[in-house]
Design a protein that fits this description.
single chain, alpha/beta, Rossmann fold, 13 helices, 11% strand, disordered C terminus, binds adenosine monophosphate, binds zinc ion
Length: 333
């Protein structure tokens, strides 16, 4: 097979584009897809300080690699989830990548910083392991970005991730979640801007990119993910894609163009600082603090500020029964 761009011999086939590319041209068109995503959704300004959430998987490492190559001021953030050898290997590849690129890596260990790890959360809390893991990631990414003075958080969500999430939201007609699903979530009081620059690239493309760039990444799936709903939606999408290449992209990219505008208009709820940690929330305490209190078997108390109002809140809460389902964002948010 010949490369579509240069007619040299091709090494990667992209079926949905009905095209094949040599190494150099594949890397070029992949970067161009990311640049196009960034430009058309106004994701990043050249002066922005970007915090890239890197898990050690192919997507987020490829993202960090591309953003550095494009000249962005991109630091990495690794969150240690405490999932045994899987988390240890993930930390190692992320550290090795950062060192190889002389890039800055921030690390947070969930157990050290917040007193619980993901396996414990799954056993003790009322939510699924994946739900509490997703909630913890969103919380820590936002908090670290705010505290570190970053303008934007970038994650490695790819086309397969976004199509599977949209499928899940659509199957249950979660119209608010459908309206919110976007490659860019703008900043709001206490919430840092979030972007997903890989949303135009399939999982096969990010894997080929990482491989061709010689990036060492953790291939194994999270061992706790087996049976996860998101995974089943991905498999269903792949089964359709196998028969009709391009369906996945039509589903998600078509939604962005033509579907999403029909769901907009849902009011964004008012956000208030969490009485415990100060992060933005719609309730008195944020979902993370409530989940954490439940996991640790603690009663939620407001920050010790000594204010009269705070004391009153604490008294009310002594009676509060923590709701079983704390956060309605779906299995993996
Ligand atoms: P996932 O929720 O595992 O599908 O991951 C989605 C995105 O979240 C990844 O592409 C990363 O950008 C980010 N991410 C996941 N796990 C971690 C982690 N342990 N530390 C930092 N970022 C992560
Ligand atoms: Zn909180």
């Amino acid at each position: 097979m010949k490369c579509r761009r240069c007619r040299g011999s091709a090494v990667v086939e992209v079926r949905r584009h009905n095209a094949a590319y040599c190494r150099g041209c594949f890397l070029h068109v992949t970067r161009a897809q990311v640049e196009r995503a960034i430009r058309s959704w106004a994701m990043l300004r050249p002066s922005d300080r970007v915090l890239v959430a890197v898990s050690g998987g192919k997507d987020s490492l490829a993202l960090w690699d591309i953003l550095l190559d494009l000249g962005y001021r991109a630091d990495g953030l690794y969150l240690g989830l405490g999932i045994g050898g899987y988390s240890e290997r993930s930390a190692e590849v992320v550290r090795a990548f950062a060192a190889s690129r002389s890039a800055t890596l921030r690390e947070v260990d969930l157990a050290e910083a917040y007193g619980f790890d993901v396996p414990t959360a799954g056993r003790r809390g009322s939510r699924s392991t994946c739900a509490v893991c997703g909630l913890s990631k969103r919380y820590v990414f936002n908090r670290e970005a705010l505290e570190g003075g970053y303008d934007v958080v970038a994650t490695g969500h790819n086309l397969d991730d976004e199509a599977a999430t949209l499928l899940g939201n659509t199957l249950r007609w979660q119209t608010d979640a459908i309206a919110r699903q976007s490659p860019v979530l703008p900043a709001a009081d206490g919430l840092v801007k979030k972007v997903k620059p890989l949303f135009r690239l399939s999982e096969l493309e990010t894997a080929a990119y990482a491989f061709l760039r010689g990036i060492d990444y953790v291939v194994e799936e999270c061992p706790l993910v087996a049976g996860n709903t998101q995974l089943r939606y991905k498999q269903a999408m792949n089964a359709i894609e196998a028969g009709s290449p391009g369906t996945k992209a039509q589903f998600f990219l078509g939604y962005l163009q033509r579907g999403r505008p029909r769901f907009e208009g849902a009011d964004r709820p008012e956000l208030e600082p969490c009485a415990r940690c100060g992060q933005p929330t719609t309730g008195r305490f944020c979902a993370f603090c409530r989940a954490r209190a439940q996991i640790l078997g603690e009663r939620l108390e407001p920050r010790a500020s000594g204010a009269g109002e705070d004391r009153q809140v604490a008294e009310e809460l002594a009676e509060e029964v923590l709701p079983a389902e704390l956060y309605g964002a779906g299995p993996r948010g």
